[in-house]
Write a structure and sequence with these properties.
It is found in: Cytoplasm. InterPro entries: Rossmann-like_a/b/a_fold (IPR014729), tRNA(Met)_cyd_acetate_ligase (IPR008513). Its main location: cytoplasm. One of its GO terms (molecular function) is ligase activity, forming carbon-nitrogen bonds. The chain is an alpha/beta fold. The chain folds into two domains: 279 residues, HUPs (Rossmann fold), CATH 3.40.50.620; 79 residues, no CATH class. Helices cover 50% and strands 10% of the residues. It has 19 helices and eight strands. Strands 1, 2, 3, 4, 5, 6, 7 and 8 form an eight-stranded mixed sheet that branches. Helix 2 packs antiparallel against helix 10, helix 5 crosses helix 8 and helix 6 crosses helix 7. The protein starts with a strand and ends with a strand. The mean pLDDT is 94.
C-alpha cells in the first residue's frame, strides 16, 4: 500500500493545490493521501482566512483522505521548524511511504537532496556566518550561502517553496525517515504575485477579497468556493487591536524573553505601536534585517507569550509531535486502522481523551490557546472549540 504525505496550509485550497494533489497521487501511485495542515495560524504568523475545520473539509472534498493538524509551535514558525514538525508527524504515522512537496524548478530540486545534507555541516555554517557579516537580511545571506555551496544561481533560493523543499529533505535526513521524497514543479503564481487568474496564489485571492471582490470562484475549485463564499474571512488586520493593547502594556525586558526577539528589536516594537495607525506601525517596524513574515510571527509570539525559554524546553524534550485528526473520508477507515496500529506518536481523535505531559503538553496548551484566540478574531466565539468540535467526516 502506498500512502503519500503532503504538507499544506490550504489558505484557501486553490487550483494550484488541486494540481499538486493530483500530480502527487499520479506520480506516487498511492492508495491514500494524508495531509499535515497548519491549524488556525499560518507559517507567516497570520490568522488563516477560515478555521482549520473548514479548510480540512475543503481538502477532504477535493481528494485528501486524512487531514492532521500541524501544532501551532511548528505551524507558526520559521521554515526549518515548520518542516521538521510536519515530517516528524508523517514519519511517525507508520504507513506513509512518500512525501510530496512543491518546488519552483523540478531540475533544481534534483540537486536539493544532496544539498540538504550540507545544511548540517560546520562548513555551511561557516559560509553562512561570513555572509551574515556582510548582509543584514538573513534570507538573503542564506540564499547566498546556499548558492555558494551548491553552484546553483542565488535566485533558486529566493522562492519560499524551494527553501521549504530543502527543509523537508533536511528533516527526512535528520529523522532518518524512509519516506521517498517527490518534488512536484509548482503550478501557479508566486506568493507576492497579485494577479487573479485560474492559478492565482493564496495571497492574491485573500487580497482580492479584502479589496471587496466578491466572486472569486474562478481562482479555486467550485466545491471550495461553495464552502467559503459566504463566510467572514479573517485577516491579519483583525489582530491589530490586540497588538496595540499588548505592545502598550509590555516592557522591553519582557519582550526580550519572547522567542526570536533579539538585537534590540524590543525597543522598535514598543516604539512602532505608539501610533494609532496599524499601517504606520508596520512602516516603523519594516527593515532590511527582518522579513515581514518574521516580524509578523514575532508579533504573534508576543501576543501569545511564546518565550525563548518555552521553545528551548520544547527542543530539550526532543521536539515531540502528535497526530491530531481534523478530518477524514469514510473510505479511509482502513488507513486510520493502520495508523492506530502502527503509529509511533499519539493519535488524537477526541480532544477530551488526550491527557499529555511534558513537551506534548506544551504543544497541546498552545494549540488550545491559538484556537481560543482565533475564535475571537473569527466571530467573537466561545473558548474550548477544540473540545467541542470533532473530526470532519465526508
Amino acid at each position: 500500500m502506498n500512502v503519500t504525505g503532503i504538507v499544506a496550509e490550504y489558505n484557501p485550497f486553490h487550483n494550484g493545490h488541486l494540481y499538486h494533489l493530483r500530480q502527487a497521487v499520479q506520480r506516487s501511485d498511492c492508495n491514500y493521501v494524508v495531509c499535515v495542515m497548519s491549524g488556525n495560524f499560518t507559517q507567516r504568523g497570520e490568522p488563516a482566512m477560515t478555521d482549520k475545520w473548514t479548510r480540512a473539509r475543503a481538502a477532504l472534498q477535493l481528494g485528501v483522505d486524512v487531514v492532521l493538524e500541524l501544532p501551532f509551535l511548528y505551524a507558526a514558525m520559521p521554515a526549518n521548524r515548520f518542516a521538521y514538525g510536519a515530517v516528524k508527524i508523517l514519519s511517525g504515522l507508520g504507513p506513509v511511504t512518500h512525501l510530496a512537496f512543491g518546488s519552483e524548478d523540478a531540475a533544481a530540486a534534483e540537486h536539493f537532496r544532496a544539498l540538504s545534507k550540507y545544511l548540517h555541516t560546520e562548513e555551511f555554517q561557516r559560509i553562512l556566518k561570513s555572509y551574515l557579516a556582510q548582509e543584514p537580511s538573513y534570507p538573503v545571506a542564506y540564499a547566498k550561502a546556499l548558492a555558494k555551496i551548491s553552484g546553483l544561481p542565488e535566485t533558486a533560493f529566493s522562492f519560499p517553496n524551494n527553501i521549504l523543499a530543502l527543509e523537508y529533505l533536511k528533516a527526512l535526513d535528520t529523522l532518518k525517515s524512509p519516506m521517498a521524497p517527490l518534488a512536484i514543479q509548482r503550478q501557479g503564481a508566486q506568493h507576492k504575485d497579485i494577479r487573479l487568474d485560474a492559478y492565482a496564489s493564496g495571497s492574491a485571492i485573500r487580497r482580492a477579497r479584502e479589496q471587496g471582490l466578491r466572486d472569486l470562484s474562478a481562482a479555486m475549485p467550485f466545491a471550495v468556493w461553495q464552502l467559503v463564499k459566504d463566510l467572514r474571512w479573517v485577516t491579519p488586520g483583525d489582530m491589530a487591536p490586540s497588538f496595540f493593547s499588548r505592545f502598550r502594556t509590555i516592557s522591553a525586558a519582557e519582550l526580550q524573553g519572547i522567542f526570536d526577539v533579539n538585537e534590540g528589536l524590543e525597543n522598535r516594537l514598543i516604539r512602532a505601536f505608539r501610533t494609532t495607525d496599524y499601517e504606520l506601525a508596520w512602516k516603523e517596524l519594516s527593515c532590511k534585517r527582518y522579513s515581514n513574515a518574521r516580524l509578523q510571527r514575532i508579533l504573534l509570539y508576543a501576543l501569545l507569550n511564546v518565550t525563548q525559554k518555552e521553545m528551548a524546553a520544547l527542543d530539550a524534550s526532543g521536539r515531540p509531535v502528535y497526530a491530531r485528526i481534523l478530518g477524514f473520508r469514510r473510505k479511509a477507515t482502513p488507513l486510520l486502522r493502520e495508523i492506530q496500529d502502527h503509529a509511533a506518536i499519539p493519535v488524537i481523535t477526541k480532544a477530551a481523551d488526550f491527557h499529555p505531559s511534558g513537551g506534548l503538553n506544551m504543544l497541546w496548551k498552545r494549540d488550545l490557546m491559538a484556537t481560543d484566540f482565533y475564535s475571537l478574531l473569527q466571530d467573537h466565539g466561545p473558548s474550548g472549540r477544540d473540545y467541542i468540535k470533532g473530526p470532519v467526516i465526508v
